[in-house]
Amino acid sequence: MALGCHTSKTPHHNSKPPEQLEALKQNDTVKIVNEAVEYEIIIIEPGFNFWVASRAKPRGFYSQSFLENRNQLFVIEWNQRVLQPGRYNSNLYEMQIDYQPDIDYGYEVNYLLYNYFIYFQLTYNQRLGPFVPRI
Predict the structure, then answer these.
(1) Per-residue pLDDT tens for 5-63?
(2) Exposure string (b/e) for 44-65, b if CB count within 10 Å is 16 or more?
(3) Which of 76, 99, 109, 122 is deepest in the core (most CB within 10 A)?
(4) Where are the beta strands (DSSP E) in the chain?
(5) Do the domain assignments include residue 33?
(6) Closest by alpha carbon to 57, among 67, 65, 43?
(7) pTM, rounded to two decimals
(8) Any domain includes 132
């Protein structure tokens, strides 16, 4: 799946060495796999990998239920925008996301999907729901 942020806060510093962060800048594809439920997300977005490593809250900061609840809201809004190309930029909202609330996708899938939505909103000055996107 190819998915198509800006903040006034001080950047969250991650413990990754600078050379690892530099390598992440070069890799613009993130593949998220949960083999237990046979689910895979591929995010092709320049800068996302680096952003997650350097700015996102660390894994474990949010509970899985928090991530699932936010992802459900974001996916609903995202999919509505995909269906309205005359109202929303079709270059940003290219395809629907099949995210079912009754499936346990696991922490990693939810963590990266949530962070993609935050990154997307901040990068493209979008708002996918009632919450102000923040890190």
Answers:
(1) 333 334 444 455 665 555 555 566 666 666 666 777 788 888 999 999 999 999 999 99
(2) ebeebbbbbbbbbbeeeebebe
(3) 109
(4) 29-34, 39-44
(5) yes
(6) 67
(7) 0.77
(8) no
